[in-house]
Amino acid sequence: MVLFAGHLSTNRRPLEKSSAPLCETLFDPRSCEHAASMGERQVPGAVRCGTIQEQEQEWERGSKGLEKGLKVSASLMEPPNDLNITAAALEKAADWSRDLLGRGKEVEDNALKACMEAAEAPCADWSCQLQDEILNLAYDRCGEVTGEYAKTFYLGTKLMTPEKQRAIWAIYVWCRRTDELVDGPNASRVTPKALERWDERLQSVFAGEPYDVLDAALSHTLSEFPISIQPFRDMVDGMRMDLVKSRYKNFDELYEYCYRVAGTVALMTVPVMGIDENFEGDKEKVYHAALSLGLANQLTNILRDVGEDVTRGRIYLPVDDLKRYGIQEEEVVKGLVDPATGKVDDRWKEFMKFQIARARDIFKESEKGINALHVDARWPVWSALVVYREILDAIEANDYDNFTKRAYVPKWRKTALLPYAYLQGLKGIDRSL
Ligand SMILES: CC(C)=CCC/C(C)=C/CC/C(C)=C/CC/C(C)=C/[C@@H]1[C@@H](COP(=O)(O)OP(=O)(O)O)[C@]1(C)CC/C=C(\C)CC/C=C(\C)CCC=C(C)C
After folding, report:
1. Left, alpha or beta for 54 (phi > 0: left; psi -120 to 50: alpha)?
2. What is the pLDDT of residues 361-418, one digit of tens each?
3. What residues does each domain of the chain span?
4. Closest ligand 1 atom, CA of 183?
5. Which among 281, 255, 270, 286 is positioned nearest to 367, based on CA atoms?
6. Which atom of ligand 1 is nearest to the CA of 238?
7. Which family is this protein grouped under (predicted)?
8. Rg (the chain; Cα; Å)
């Protein structure tokens, strides 16, 4: 049985030549021959993704099945002369990043408009056949990955209708794989070229020509929900930015980064969740609320992970804010906790109070939009919001030590927050929106 047969430009070259784990079978011409020899219909130039059994075997082989499916970075890298091209390419990427700086809001607005236009247009209509069996397998895999890697968001999706839930899982997996390129174990070897390949691969997904089962789930999602490619491209650009940029001068610069890695997620998921048909206000405001939730989540994530990010050479905090609180970059690198006493520096505490207050304000902004979403999406989004926001309380409870401690919300507390989230969703559309 063939996974996916869609039309394809004839000059496609295999992107995943090296040690591609799950994807190996997808570009192996033998899988096409194998399929053909089994008497299956051969569409000229079609992507042949191997048989369902091959996909299953690939996935199950080894003890780290989930990871195998996720980690695409190795397969996107130039195998032999990688390091020779890196310096020049990195310089080019740095220029690109500089040119873009300060244009964060513009980039965001542009994507917002593209998403609103896409929402009014018909969904993709692939001239392809996607077997039910393989489709179910693809979505099951996405669900497994989401459940494994994103407990908070998975909990939210479990409250959605099955169609929306699986679509969000497919989006999650694409985002996770993208993030893994610059954040995963191979990150130091991922070049701008690898990101270009990932971008090409994204375009194929949006052309109905997926490369593997996880991509196939996203291609299918695009045929069910009116989603624009723009936020996906902006997220890949965010990863490009991450390759070359490790400091943020001010909040504007950080804002752009947050849009690219998290606001984009909001723009990707709103069309899946849908806006309530009784909402009579300006839809753009709903998208703005969604962007705020992405931003607030990402700021929270940054505040939680300061110590961890420093070990990767990155400080995602506005340098001018640090200066205002009398803190030098080098102090953040060393950590502002006295190792002997465990006491947190007072300047750091004050700085953190300011950052936490800002994140809370942005969460508040986003709240207005949630009840403008379709009724069945409100509980999931409220749940994700209230649970993620509690990470800020956990940072406070750790006395602002985010160098040696990782703030988290315990499972019992997440469960306890669910009824509150449910009640928030019952409140009806916020007329102030
Ligand atoms: C409930 C729901 C619809 C969830 C969306 C799930 C989804 C598709 C998540 C993708 C997350 C992801 C892997 C993004 C890649 C970049 C990144 C790492 C962003 C950070 C997420 C947290 O990831 P991480 O794995 O590091 O987290 P933990 O270690 O487990 O804490 C981010 C912080 C960004 C997350 C951003 C969102 C989920 C966007 C939220 C906005 C909406 C769902 C729109 C809501 C609509 C209105 C109108 C308010």
Report:
1. alpha
2. 999 999 999 999 999 999 999 999 999 999 999 999 999 999 999 999 999 999 999 9
3. 274-433
4. 18
5. 286
6. 16
7. Belongs to the phytoene/squalene synthase family.
8. 22
CA distances from 198 to 58, 158, 214, 426 (A): 21, 29, 14, 41
Q: Which of 23-32, 98-107, 217-226 has the highest mean pLDDT?
A: 217-226
State if residue 290 touches ligand 1 by the CB under 6 angstroms criterion.
yes
Tens of pLDDT, residue by residue over 144-174, are 999 998 887 898 888 899 999 999 999 999 9
The owner of tokens 């950590």 is 335
Which of 153, 300, 312 for mutating ligand 1's site (highest number of atoms within 8 Å of CB)? 153
pTM for this structure? 0.84
Sole residue written with tokens 């003890």: 63
Ligand 1 pocket mutation pick from 269, 373, 395, 417 by most atoms within 8 angstroms of CB: 269
Ligand 1 centroid from CA 35, angstroms: 38
Closest CA to 302 of 388, 410, 409: 388
Determine the number of helices (DSSP H) and then strands (DSSP E) in the chain. Answer: 22, 2
Please check whether residue 4 is in contact with residue 204, taking contact to mean a CB–CB distance below 8 angstroms.
no
| Residue among 391, 419, 421 at smallest CA distance from 406 | 391
Residue 241 has a CB neighbour count (10 Å cut-off) of: 21
